[in-house]
Design a protein that fits this description.
Elements: E1 7-10, E2 21-25, E3 31-36, E4 43-48, E5 54-58, E6 63-66, E7 72-74, E8 87-94, E9 97-103, E10 108-113, E11 123-128, E12 135-138, E13 149-153, E14 159-163, E15 166-170, E16 183-188, E17 194-199, E18 203-208, E19 214-219
Antiparallel strand pairs: 1-2, 2-3, 4-5, 5-6, 6-7, 8-9, 9-10, 10-11, 12-13, 13-14, 14-15, 16-17, 17-18, 18-19
């Protein structure tokens, strides 16, 4: 993913001048823009596109697209078409793609917007029957399979892999038999080859993103050498 020249610092708690603003800074620390913050909205996540557009996604489905000066560059419709109990629980910005986790009263579903430069309507990827603990995405052109891949933590333990509208659950690392406890966080290397899973018990498992091999396991609660 392209790293933009602009950096988000968020909302300082102690500086009264900027406490009510989200501030945007360049790499030298100079403020290039600021946006008055609405504390009545719940921000789900934010991220930069590859052409340096800041995407802010709110729980209600509202989305804002800002340039480096804090100016709106587009006015997209609400991401949630119907009213009711639907909300956005989580999201991820990757290059010009947006991956969204929708939550209804009794169900969850992943949606995506393939190109934020030209389209703001989310398309369904897959419905799932559980509430994921976390998730990470590998877009088609960056995955070894050539398909969009979503890795998500299962609340009862294990890893869910969504690819080509199929949902599979792995409770053990393939070919090694090591159990995968509840996954609290997921990280991918820059080339998307390796996958790191932070487990509820404090262990970190590193494996290949195609789940063909476990690389090692390390406990964050002690100073033992990783296996």
């Amino acid at each position: 993913m392209m790293i933009p020249d602009q950096v988000i610092f968020g909302i300082p708690e102690t500086n009264q001048l900027f406490r009510q603003y989200l501030t945007i800074h360049n790499s030298a620390g100079k403020i290039t823009g600021k946006v008055r913050w609405d504390f009545n909205k719940k921000l789900v996540d934010m991220g930069w596109t590859s052409d340096e557009i800041l995407v802010l996604v709110y729980e209600t489905g509202e989305m804002e697209l800002l340039n480096i000066y804090g100016e709106k560059v587009a006015y997209p419709n609400n991401l949630i078409e119907s009213s009711g109990d639907i909300r956005i629980k989580d999201c991820e910005v990757f290059e010009n793609m947006l991956i969204l986790l929708f939550q209804d009263r009794n169900s969850h579903s992943f949606h995506h917007i393939r190109n934020l430069s030209s389209n703001y309507k989310p398309d369904l990827i897959s419905d799932i029957s559980i509430d994921p603990t976390c998730f990470k995405t590998i877009p088609e052109r960056h995955s070894s399979s050539g398909n969009l891949e979503i890795f998500a933590g299962h609340p009862d333990g294990g890893l869910i892999v969504i690819m080509e509208h199929r949902v599979r659950r792995f409770t053990q690392i393939p070919f090694s038999g090591e159990d995968i406890a509840v996954v609290m966080s997921i990280a991918l290397t820059a080339n998307n080859v390796l996958l790191a899973l932070l487990l509820e018990n404090g262990d970190v498992i590193v494996l290949r993103s195609n789940l063909s091999e476990g690389i090692g396991r390390y406990s964050t609660y002690n100073e033992t050498v990783p296996k």
